[in-house]
């Protein structure tokens, strides 16, 4: 675990607000963040963000082209802030990405390699978005991977279940937040 980091991805106010979270994602993410902090594991927050005017967004990009001119996910947008339930501490890294994957348009790989991190624990919104894209790219970059199945959320529960039950296990260990926290506590003892 000494070379691991927890990635909390796209847990920003505007994104959280788009989901009906009856399942309690935020308390589980807070538990995961607390467990990581308790054993000194780095917590890295990944956010989507752009410069004013969204110059990084191509009109050909179906995911982000509707943002152009909106002011959303720029420096002054309160919706771009990390949700307070999992807010970073001053000493925690916040990585800004420009696309779906946490690696796309960011310095995440540099931060991880500089920290000697070779194992990523993935969580965030959405399972079929940032989690899937980051998992695929991280696997290609030879990171060891764990996905916190109930630390992820998707607008389509069936897609979430297929990804966490059938797709992700091909490249990652898939655990619940409680299982992972228990493993961390055992590691700490």
Automatic annotation (TrEMBL):
Q: Record's superkingdom?
A: Bacteria
Domain spans labelled Isochorismatase-like:
4-179
| Alphabetized InterPro entries for the sequence | Isochorismatase-like_dom, Isochorismatase-like_hydrls, Isochorismatase-like_sf
Pfam families registered for this protein in UniProt:
Isochorismatase
Record's keyword terms, sorted: Hydrolase
MF terms from GO for this chain are:
hydrolase activity
CDD domains the UniProt entry points to: cysteine_hydrolases
Gene3D superfamilies documented for this protein: Isochorismatase-like (3.40.50.850)
Q: Note the PANTHER family from the entry.
A: ISOCHORISMATASE HYDROLASE (PTHR43540:SF1), PEROXYUREIDOACRYLATE/UREIDOACRYLATE AMIDOHYDROLASE-RELATED (PTHR43540)
Under which name does UniProt file this protein?
Isochorismatase
Record organism: Streptomyces yokosukanensis
Starting at the broadest rank, the lineage of the source organism is: Bacteria, Bacillati, Actinomycetota, Actinomycetes, Kitasatosporales
């Amino acid at each position: 675990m000494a070379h691991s980091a927890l990635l909390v991805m796209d847990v920003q106010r505007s994104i959280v607000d788009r989901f009906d979270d009856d399942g309690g994602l935020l308390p589980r993410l807070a538990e995961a963040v607390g467990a990581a902090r308790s054993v000194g594991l780095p917590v890295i927050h990944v956010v989507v963000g752009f410069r004013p005017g969204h110059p990084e967004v191509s009109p050909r990009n179906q995911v982000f082209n509707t943002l152009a001119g909106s002011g959303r996910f720029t420096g002054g947008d309160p919706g771009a802030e990390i949700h307070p339930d999992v807010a970073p501490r001053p000493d925690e890294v916040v990585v800004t990405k420009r696309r779906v994957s946490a690696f796309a348009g960011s310095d995440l790989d540099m931060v991880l390699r500089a920290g000697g991190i070779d194992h990523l624990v993935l969580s965030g919104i959405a399972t079929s978005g940032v989690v899937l894209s980051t998992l695929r790219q991280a696997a290609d970059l030879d990171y060891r991977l764990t996905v916190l199945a109930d630390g992820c959320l998707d607008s389509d529960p069936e897609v979430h279940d297929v990804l966490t039950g059938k797709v992700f296990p091909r490249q990652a260990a898939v655990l619940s937040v409680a299982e992972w926290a228990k493993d961390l506590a055992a590691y700490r003892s």
